[in-house]
Design goal:
single chain, mainly alpha, 6 helices
Length: 92
């Protein structure tokens, strides 16, 4: 049973992130984006960030900075060296 959960963690986290974008406070999808970005090269983090921005961004022109999408980009690209170091191992 634990093996099934480990192998399906990525789609389960992505679904929780999408559901969290609709029903949870903004820190929940951000936490899921962080977990996805640290563990996987996750384009799902970008999708969740875009969804949160589209749902919760105010309609004014001055506040139209897509914070969660930019955070998703920073997480996915910024965590790449960390992922490579801890999950693949040191390269000699």
């Amino acid at each position: 049973m634990l093996s099934l959960l480990i192998h399906n963690a990525r789609p389960i986290l992505a679904v929780f992130g999408i559901i969290g974008a609709f029903f949870a406070p903004p820190w929940v999808p951000l936490l899921i984006m962080l977990i996805l970005a640290v563990r996987y090269p996750a384009w799902e983090a970008l999708l969740i960030g875009l969804l949160v921005d589209l749902l919760w961004l105010p309609a004014t022109a001055f506040a139209a900075l897509p914070i969660f999408t930019l955070a998703g980009l920073a997480l996915v690209w910024g965590c790449e060296p960390l992922r490579r170091e801890f999950l693949v191992g040191k390269r000699v």
